Amino acid sequence: MKTWFHSWRAAIRIARRDAWRAKGRSALVLAMIALPILGVSAFDLTYRSSELSPAEQMDRSIGAADARFLDARMGGVPLLQTPEGDNYAPAKDTGDGAWPTGPTDLDRAVPRGASVLTDSTGSARLTTRHGLLQAEVRELQAGDPVARGIMTLLDGRHPGKPDEVMATSHFLKTSGLTVGSTVSARNFDRPYRIVGSYELPDELESLQINALPGAFLAPYAKAVEKSGLPAPESSTSYLVRHRGGFTWNTVQQINAMGVVVMSRAVVLDPPADSEVPLYKKEGWGNYGTSAAANAAELAAAGTVVGLAMLEICLLAGPAFAVGARRSRRQLGLVGANGGARSHIRAIVLSGGLVIGVAAALVGTVLALILTLALEPYLEELMGQRFGAFDIRPLELLGIALIAVLTGLLAAVVPAVTASRQTVLASLTGRRGVRRSSRVLPLVGLGALLLGGTIALYGSVMSDEFMIVAGGSAIAELGVVAMTPALVGLFGRLGRWLPLAPRLALRDAVRNRGRTAPAVAAVLAAVAGTVAVSTYGASRDAQSRAEYEAMLPHGAVSAVVLEEGGRDVPAVREAVERNLPVDVRADVERVQVGKLGCPPWGGGPGCGRYELVVPKANECPLYVRVPGGGGDASEKYAPEQRRKLLTEDWRCEQNGNGGNMHVEGGLLVGDAKLLKVLGIDDAGAEKALAEGKIVTFHRPLIDRNGTLGIKRVTDTVAADKAMEKGLPAPGEVSPIPAYLVRGEPTSYGLQALMTPATAKAAGLTTVPYGSYFSTDRMPDEEQRQKLDAELAKLGGSAEVHVETGFTDESSIVLLSLAVFAGLVTIGAAAIATGLAQADAEADLKTLAAVGAPPRVRRTLSGFQCGVVATMGVVLGSAAGVLPAMGLRLTEERQEIRFHEEALAEGWSLDVTPPYVPIVIPWETLAVLLVAVPLGAALLAALVTRSRGAVARRAVT
Predict the structure, then answer these.
(1) Sign of CA dihedral 656, 662, 665, 667
(2) pTM of structure
(3) For residue 739, which of 704, 690, 691, 687 has the smallest C-alpha distance?
C-alpha cells in the first residue's frame, strides 16, 4: 500500500511538472474538458436557482395570505379541483354538454373571522409618451402586509390615493414614462399620477399598473360603456387570512360553493392522489412524469454525455500522446532506473488525472463566479427572479467527476502505448514497428452492422424515433472503432499523389495510433453536423411545399378587430405612408349587436351571423343529428366517407387558407379586393356592380340562386339549439349570388358584397381594414417604421406582409458547419503536432539531402489536410444515413395518419403527404472542400520553415 501510494505520488508530481512545462498543450486540453463542465455546471446552478420551492411559489402567488379564492365562473355549482388549484371541473358529470357558466359569489365562501384583501385585474389601452399601449390594470392594496411578496417595490411608494398608481419597471421602460408622470386610458379622461415602480418576481416583462381597489377598473368600465362600447371584462379574487389556514377538507367544503381555492397549507403538504376526487373522474388524473418517461430521459441524457465524453477523449487523446512522445526519453530513463511498465502507465495517466482535476476545478469555479455575476442578466433573460442561489454540492461534484473521468479516459490509450515501448527505443528515439489491432475493426464492423440493422428496422417497420436514433448512435460508434482500418484503406490512394501529399498520407497510415483518434473526432463532429443539416434541410423542403400563402406575394393586409374598427382610418394612412402601395381595397365586416362587439360575437348585447348552407346542400357527413348526440359520419363505412369527401361537391372544403378573422370569410368591399387578391373574373365584377354577392363556395347557394345570411341576436338560445342538433334561431337575409367558377385561390375569402348590397339586405357593417397590393416587396426598414407607427395606436392592428416561405434554418446550418469546421481544424492540428514530433528525424534527413525549407511547411499542411479530409469524408457518409432513417420513419407516420384521417372523414385532402429527403449540398461542400483546405493552409502558415537546432541522437 505504501509503495503504491508513493509511486502514484511521484507519478502525479512528474505529470504536474510536465503539464506546467508544456503550458500551451495543457491549456488546450484543459479548455476542451473545462468548457463543457463550465456549461453544464452553470446550467445546473441556473436551473436549480430558478426552480422555486412550494413556499417561494406561494409567497409570489398569494403573498402572506393563507389562500386565494377564485371565481370558477360556473354559476356557483359544486366543483372538484386539484390540490394546487390550477385545474378544476364541475362535480356533476355533464357528459358531452357544456359546462355551466355564470359568476360566483365569493363572499359566501369566506369563513367567519377571516380577513380579506381583494385582487382585481383587467386591461386597458393606456396613454404613453409615444401613443397608446395595451396593458394590464391591477387593483391590489400592495402596501398591505397580506400582499407582501407579490410585488417588489423598486422606486417611490405604494399608491395612497384614488388618483395614484404605480407601474412595473417594464411598463415605464416601454411607455417612456417615469415616476411622477401621469397616465390615463383611451375613452377615459381621468388622469392618474405614477408614484412608484415595482416588478412581479415571476413576470419581469409584465406591462401592468396597480391602483387602489375600486379606483380604476369600475370608473373606466363606465366611461367605456358611455362611449358606446362593451365594458371591458375584469376578474376579482380574494386573498384570505384565517386562523389555522385551509386544510384539504376545508378546501373541498369551499369547492361545494363553486369557488376554487389555492391554499398554502395544501400546496406545502399535498394530499395523496387517492384523496383527490377530481383524479377519480374519467379523463382526469395526476399525469405526472412516468417512470418510463424518466428512464427514457435518463437514457437520452446518458447518451449525450457519453458521446460528448467520447468526442473530448478523441480530441484530447492525441494531445496526451504528443506529451508522451515528447517525454519518451524521460519515460525511458524511468524504465532504465528500474521502473516497471505500470509506472510508465501511471505517469501518463497522471497527466490525464492532473488535467482532469484542474479542468473540474476551473470549470466549477468559473461556473459559480459567472452564474453569480450574470444572475441579473439571466433573470432578465428568463423573465423571472431566482429564488435562493441554490448550490447542490453532490450534483456539482458529479459533474466535476465527469471531467476527471474524461481526462483519465483520454490518457488511457497513450499510457498503454507508451508503456509498450522498450527502454532502448525510448532512449534512442526509435519508434519500432507499429501494428494496429485486428480485433477493434471487427468489433466496429459488428457494431456498424448491428446499429444499421436497428436503424433500418426503426425506419421501415417501426414508428419510434428512439429506435432509429439508438441504432444510428451504435453504428456511428462502430465506424469510430473501424477508423484505424479505414485510414489504412485511404493509404492506397497515395500512389497517385505528388510527393508532399504522398508522404503525408503514408505517414498518417503508418502511424494510425495518432491519426485514428483525430480522424474519429472529426468523423463524430461532422457526422452529427451532417445528420442535423440533412434533417433540417429536409424539413425545410417539406415546409416549403406545405406552405400556404395568406395573400399574393408582396400583398399586405391590415385589419382592426377591436372597438368597432375605430383605428382603421389611422392604420390605412400609416400603411400607405410607409409601404409602396399600388392598390388599396377597403373592406368592412358585418356587425350584429353593439358597435364594439368582436367579429366572432360574445358578450352582453353582442350577436353573430352565419352563412346558411341549404339543407339540400349539406354534406351527409356533417349534418346535425337530432337531439345533439352522435356523429352523422359514423353510419358510413371508411370507403364511403372517402368517396363522399373526394367526389361529392357538397363536402368540398370550405375555404383555402388566408387570414380572415370573420365568420365564414364574408367581407364587404368592392372589385378592388378581387384585383388585390389576383382574381380575374369579369363576371364577378359585374355581379358586384349589380348588387349581388360573390361567393367561391358552391354549397352556400340555394336552388333559387341566393345566399342566406342569418343574424343571430340571442346567442344563448343559439347555443342551446346547436346542442340539440337544431338550427340557431335568427333572421335570414337572402341575397342574389354569383358563383365564381373554377378553383381560384381566394385566400380565405368565401363571400364578398358591396356596402350598398349589405345595406339593402338590412345588415349593419363596421370598418374592418384594408388589403393592399404593392409595387415591390416592402423592405425591412419600411416594415419597422410601420410597426413603430402602429405601436402608437396600442397594438390594435394586425398587419401581414406576404413574403412567401422563409427559410429559418439557414443560420442554424451555417452555425453547425462552423462548429464542425472548428472541431475539424482542432483535431487535425493536434494530429499534425503529433506528426511533427514523430517526423522530426525525417524532416532533418530531407533537409540534409537538400530539400528546400518550404518542404517542412508543405508537409505540415498536407498532414493536417489529410486528417481533415479523411474525417470529413467518413463523417459525411456516416451522418446522412441517420437523417434518412428519421425521415423515413416520419414518412410512415404521416402516411398512416393521412390514411386514417381520410378513412374516418377527418380530412378531405386526398394528396399523400410529401416527406422529402434533401441533402444539404452547400453544407457538404463547405465541409468537404473549404474545411480541409482551410486546415491545411492554416497548418502551413503556423509551421516554421526551419526546425530547431537539436543535438545528434545517440544511435
Answers:
(1) negative
(2) 0.71
(3) 687
